[in-house]
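Weekly modeling sync, notes
Attendees: S.R. (lead), two postdocs, one rotation student

Agenda item 3: backlog of single-chain predictions. S.R. asked that every request posted to the team notebook include the full sequence so nobody has to chase files. The rotation student volunteered to paste the first one in as an example of the format we agreed on. Action items at the bottom.

Example entry:
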Amino acid sequence: MSLRKNTLWNLLGSGAPFLLGAMTIPFLLNRAGVEIFGILTLVWVLIGYFSLFDFGLGRALTQTVAKKLAGGTKEEVSRIINLGLVMVLAAGVFGGVLLACTAFPLGMRWLSVSPELQHDVVISLLIASVGIPLTTLTSGLRGVLEAYEEFGNVNLLRVLLGLANFGMPAITVLIWGPMLEWMVASLVLSRFIVFLAHAYLVRQKTKFYWIKPKSHPEEVRGLLTFGSWMTLSNLISPLMVTADRFVISSVVGASLVAYYTVPFEVLIRFLILPAALTAALFPKLSALIAVDIAAAERLFKKSALLIAVVMLVICSVASVGSLWGMTLWLGQDFAEHSWRLASILAVGILFNSIAQVPHAAAQAAGNVKGTALVHLAEFFIYFPCLFIFVHNFGLIGAVVVWVMRAFIDMSLMFVLARIVFSGNKKGAIWAAK
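Predicted structure, as returned to the notebook:
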């Protein structure tokens, strides 16, 4: 499939749910209230973040199954699929148990929830924990489908999940009113339905059966090795994107979270454009770096310039028009609390957008370790600064620190990309380790 078609499929998979979200978020905010909606956004983040408890096995399955399809037998393909799914299930159960064990302190103390909502939050987090194994299993099944190049089906299911993510809570509010437990239960039900759809499609490729990981140590080691550095980066990077709202809830209270998360969730959707391009760009860069480094560098520079120009226009409009847009969408009272945050966040979105191109280039060259170490270093700097700034400057402090981190991340990613294209021997050796 061409670069253009892959990009369009990725845009469809990420963009269609955003359109429904634009319609349902004002409804949920008005009917449920600022605090309940803020907690719902935290649950969205938790379910999405805990899906990373697949430990990179979804991506590892894509790579390993694709190799087996090219040169292995049908039995070998079936074995690696089922082995990987068993491992993903075990990882998902671990993540679900971890969330269940932390539900009580999260709801009662750590999120600074109003006393009348604390019990509801605990129950909702326990319900959300059931969705973690479903999410990780779906990640593994998606990896198998991508190995078979079923990109159309994968993105159609992504659209279905995204639509359900916004639509199902709105339906529960219409039926039962603003009850947090029903909203969260609808999210888990959505993930169960999407899981069944993925399983049905994979079942067309192979049969399912139980397999003991300890009976295939070499293949287990291969899957885990491939996903190890990717997992570190995948765990840390989303945490730095979303953990600020948990810090805000803990330091200044859950009642203010929505003023931050709503503009953030809108602006973060702008990243679907660079993400769609870099997802399609990744395999092309991987091939060119191996055979024609000059052509790879030209493609890299062209892509980076394209993203920079397009996103500069989009983010400038978002920053300048934030007050008008938030007022039109959510009303004057909400806009007064959030438009300044949106204006500053738009600058960070620009940095984050541009950074995706050198990030893709570094990983295309095999430097997954480099990007993971960059994110690890950022992690230890970002969180102390986040607590200090939120404590002293409130929501504005959180926004400023996030933008600063995005700028530093962009700069370091360009350093890694420069190592790739400069032909630096030391950098190449380091990247291969």
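Discussion: group reviewed the output briefly. Confidence is low (pLDDT under 50) at residues 424-433.
Action items: rotation student to repeat for the remaining queue; S.R. to check formatting next week.
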